Amino acid sequence: MSLLEKPNLISLLILSGVVIIAGGYGLITYTQGPEMEHYDVDADHEFGFDFERPSNSVDLPNDLEEISGLANWFVEDDVIAVQDEDGILFIVDTQTGNVKSDFKFGKDRDYEGLARVDSMVYVLERDGDIHHLKYQPGQEVYESKKLETDFSYRNETEGICYDERTNSLLIVPKDQELNPQDEDYRHGVYALDLETKELEPQPRFYVDEFAIGEVVYGKRKPYKMKPSGVAVDPLTGDVYVIASVGNIMVVIDRESNIKQIELLKEKTLTQPEGITFNRAGDLFISSEGRGGKAVIVTFRRNETSGKSKPK
């Protein structure tokens, strides 16, 4: 009997071949992948958080399944959040996941990030426009104003935060840089001066994929990432950049030197999009649900880390 007359055997051979190929690919991927998840790059830097043991993680209601931005709020463990389709802002208790209140601020657009400066709230749109309003307790509907920047949809701006040291908003594009150069392995963090309302044409800080790869892979190989959020540590002034593409968080100093790298676990943060600190220096990261429940994860600051605020 020929092989063609044994369909079950043929199916078994094909299946075996697929398994061998898949297994081989998985082995290659594993052996070429990073061996660690935490990288203390600066020997003089004391990282303030234990990413192996988050202090708390809460599921969010369905209205926030596509949560895309976070900023700190007036109550220490509360945050203000936005999701990327509706012009609604949510005040969320990070320890319970409950929405304490919400208010309308604009039309339904593609909103990606949030920043707060006292009572002023800034909402970043994907095309770089910044919608802003002055929060008034009890007010449920706002007519936000729009500040246009030099960014556009080609940049796909995703993260925004307030930098108290320079009284500016820091903005990170996910895709193309503001003024593209040949160095497409560098991701810029741009600054918008709140006094002049002007955007600096060149990045104030940057994250270098080759510098990350040198640490993670131990050789000159870029670690591919696309930033999705940014925050400034209120106690140290360090800049934290997270990326959902690459599932990574990179901590840089004010000269863009890498101080810490955390490879984020998908089981904890499926699609990290939002990041912020409270005034005490505790860290909050939000993740979209990607078909499941969105979450906010809390990382309490270590007792000995960064207790004195920078001048």
TrEMBL record:
The keyword Transmembrane applies. The keyword Transmembrane applies. It is found in: Cell membrane. The chain crosses the membrane at residues 9-28. Signal peptide: none annotated. Keywords: Cell membrane, Membrane, Transmembrane, Transmembrane helix. It comes from the Bacteria. One of its GO terms (cellular component) is plasma membrane. InterPro entries: 6-blade_b-propeller_TolB-like, WD40/YVTN_repeat-like_dom_sf, YjiK/CarP. Pfam families: SdiA-regulated. Belongs to the YjiK family. This is Uncharacterized protein. It comes from Neolewinella aurantiaca.
